């Protein structure tokens, strides 16, 4: 067995959609020493607890997928929690990783770090060039801080300590392990649940927030996990060839986007709902378009594999499998 498969790898947030996909993909690749902790076992907002964990476990690599996430409603309703929890988690994990000799760390950000009216597709260079989308600004600021924290530790400790902390910015993700909360989830899981419930109730119509015209890019979560492991596996010279010293993050996207109306129709088809789809223009749309420029990652040799139609079918199967209380209301 290659020695790198024996590395001790800590996946923070392994119960979340992205973290579970990363752990699943690492196991499939033969990694045998994956460390995880539930929130009950380790509160990542607790500085002392995180310090003790790193001093005890001494991981070789860290995938920082732990975060407080949610859709427009959740971000609007709980802005204090979104900025506080995310800042505390990433500050504690990144700093203790450094203190305890972790040289390789991957921080997972979000496409919301880019300005609301950024040129499309959004390139890595768009960071900090304009105003953020107001509905999720606290979350976005926390994620920007995480990127800059990784860059700062690289800048100060890269040469002297071999620190190599990287950041990936995924587009909108969906798939196994998603959050299907009726109010606090993202657009795809929220609509999967709504269309499923409408199908069971034989509802004649499903009304969706906004105009349906904003465009979004969606990436199946196992593709995101594969991209994360791919980025971590690149040698520093190769990775640095597509990044800049003070802008060392890379985008991870599918490569094309669709309107909210189009994704609603695709979800309706995957679920088997036959009723009418309407939109409520009195509700917020969010950013008019969010499409990532993933050219840097593509040039490094990675591309997404799962298209939206196939991914939605798998997501709906996962929803039905893991939400038995909702399958037959």
Automatic annotation (TrEMBL):
Task: Kindly indicate where the leader peptide sits in this chain.
Answer: none
Which reaction is recorded as catalysed by this protein? GDP-beta-L-fucose + NADP(+) = GDP-4-dehydro-alpha-D-rhamnose + NADPH + H(+)
**Under which pathway is this protein filed?**
Nucleotide-sugar biosynthesis; GDP-L-fucose biosynthesis via de novo pathway; GDP-L-fucose from GDP-alpha-D-mannose: step 2/2
Name the domain of life this protein comes from: Bacteria
Q: Which GO terms describe its biological process?
A: 'de novo' GDP-L-fucose biosynthetic process
Mention any Pfam family matching this sequence. Epimerase
Q: Where is this site: Important for catalytic activity?
A: 110, 112
Q: Which CDD domains match?
A: GDP_FS_SDR_e (cd05239)
Residue ranges annotated for the NAD-dependent epimerase/dehydratase domain, each copy included: 9-234
Span-the-membrane segments of this chain are none
Catalytic site positions: 139
- Name residues in a coiled coil: none
One MF term in the entry's GO annotations: GDP-L-fucose synthase activity
> Residues that bind substrate, according to the entry?
194, 209, 216, 285
Q: Which UniProt keywords apply?
A: Isomerase, Multifunctional enzyme, NADP, Oxidoreductase
Q: Which PANTHER family match?
A: GDP-L-FUCOSE SYNTHASE
Please give the function described in this protein's UniProt entry: Catalyzes the two-step NADP-dependent conversion of GDP-4-dehydro-6-deoxy-D-mannose to GDP-fucose, involving an epimerase and a reductase reaction.
User: What protein name does the entry list?
Assistant: GDP-L-fucose synthase
